[in-house]
Design a protein that fits this description.
binds pyridoxal-5'-phosphate, 14 helices, globular, single chain, 2 domains, Aspartate Aminotransferase, domain 1, seven-stranded mixed sheet
Length: about 400
């Protein structure tokens, strides 16, 4: 007869072995809590007197491994274990970092083409807590300098901005940030570390929506922030209290995505340039925004900051005929899906004026340099000839 009852034996099976060999795959620590060898060990861990794990909202080995892997790709010294912090989404990373670097009365300087979620966070959430924001044309360095106030704490940037694919002048902006004693935070989602590593250009903190190129398969949601240890220690502290930690299952998928990130992104970029080049020659296309084209305003800057031949995987095209033509182009595609988000194996399109920039009327779109007919193409891993053929048949049918 077993000495313990059925339920006790069901709850307490023999412990899983802890291997002495290093697993080749990343183990998924799907556990919310950890146990300790003594009450003292528990107390020491909570006081940060002992390194280790207590609760997966605080730290989880799988999620931490993912964040540190991104930090390594971004060129941060990963000897310090706080430099990479993982989040449940890109917006969890953005909201935590912004809250960590501001307080009631603080002010942030933000590019006017900033991601819609970040715009909404600043104008409908953080404004209620006394944080104000100035939205500036960040290609105008004098305008950025002029927007800085005594109460400014953060300069925000985006390596590549949606949908015009403008490129941030990271070295110049980081010099402005340093002179003014600000923290320079850059959302590098559209670039990924396989195109540009903003830390090398003086940026303090880099953020990604890992949902996009880092995960790369449109099957996991997550975010990550990496940067200088002094800043990231505070971000980690606030992440724990705000609660937006990345779950271990998602961390596993995102971590697996990293192994093929340079391979995938290189192909996304080459195919995007092929699509952009073909579209620039099409008689029904009035404008193509892609920094790999010599006609793009930031082509030379991209050449300086980006890895050779890699200009991102997104192309924005504008067909003649305005808003209706943009929507009709999306509808006539057969291979490319009309879908939210970007990156991922499958090519996708979205009509900018009715989706990512729907809050802007035609006047505001014009002020932001966006045509009402613009269509954003996230170029996937298909054969680029097939993508061009699909776009051409859709344009011919307009
Ligand atoms: C998608 C995206 C985000 C938000 O990321 P989520 O993972 O959806 O929360 C932030 N910034 C940029 C540039 C994005 O494209």
């Amino acid at each position: 007869m077993p000495s313990r009852g059925e339920h006790t034996r069901a709850v307490h099976p023999p412990a899983a072995p802890v291997p002495g060999q290093v697993p080749m795959g990343l183990p998924v620590y799907r556990t919310a809590a950890f146990s300790f060898s003594s009450a003292q060990e528990y107390a020491d861990l909570l006081n940060d007197d002992l390194a280790g794990y207590s609760y997966s909202r605080v730290d989880n080995p799988t999620s931490d491994a993912f964040a540190q892997a991104v930090a390594a790709l971004e060129g941060v010294n990963v000897e310090d274990e706080v430099v990479g912090q993982a989040f449940a989404s890109g917006m969890a990373a953005i909201s935590t970092v912004l809250m960590s670097l501001t307080h009631a009365g603080a002010h942030v300087v933000v590019p006017r083409e900033v991601y819609g979620g970040t715009y909404g966070l600043l104008t409908t959430v953080l404004d209620r807590f006394g944080v104000t924001a100035s939205f500036v044309d960040s290609t105008d360095l004098d305008a950025v300098r002029a927007a800085v106030r005594p109460e400014t704490t953060v300069l925000w940037g985006e390596t590549l901005a949606n949908p015009t694919m403008s490129v941030a002048d990271l070295p110049a902006l980081s010099a402005i940030s340093r002179e003014a004693g600000l923290t320079f935070v850059v959302d590098s989602t559209f670039a990924s570390p396989a195109v540009c590593r903003p830390i090398e250009h003086g940026v303090d903190v880099v953020i990604h929506s890992a949902t996009k190129y880092i995960g790369g398969h449109s099957d996991a949601t997550g975010g990550v922030a990496v940067g200088r240890p002094e800043v990231m220690a505070k971000v980690r502290h606030d992440r724990i209290d705000l609660g937006g930690m990345l779950a271990p299952d998602e961390a596993f998928l995102l971590h697996r995505g990293l192994a093929t990130l340079p391979l995938r992104v290189d192909r996304h970029c080459r195919s995007a340039l092929a699509v952009a080049t073909a579209m620039a020659e099409h008689p029904r296309i009035t404008r193509v925004d892609h920094p790999g084209l010599p006609t793009h305003r930031d082509h030379a800057l991209a050449g300086k900051l980006f890895d050779a031949g890699r200009y991102g995987g997104v192309v924005t095209v504008t067909p003649e005929g305005g808003r209706e033509a943009g929507m009709a182009l999306c509808d006539r595609l057969r291979l490319v899906a009309v879908a939210t988000s970007l990156a991922g194996t499958h090519s996708k399109v979205s009509h900018v004026a009715t989706t990512t920039h729907r809050q802007l009327d035609d006047a505001a779109l014009a002020a932001a340099g966006i045509d009402p007919g613009a269509v954003r193409i996230s170029v996937g891993l298909e054969d680029p000839e097939d993508l061009v053929a699909d776009l051409e048949q859709a344009l011919d049918a307009l």
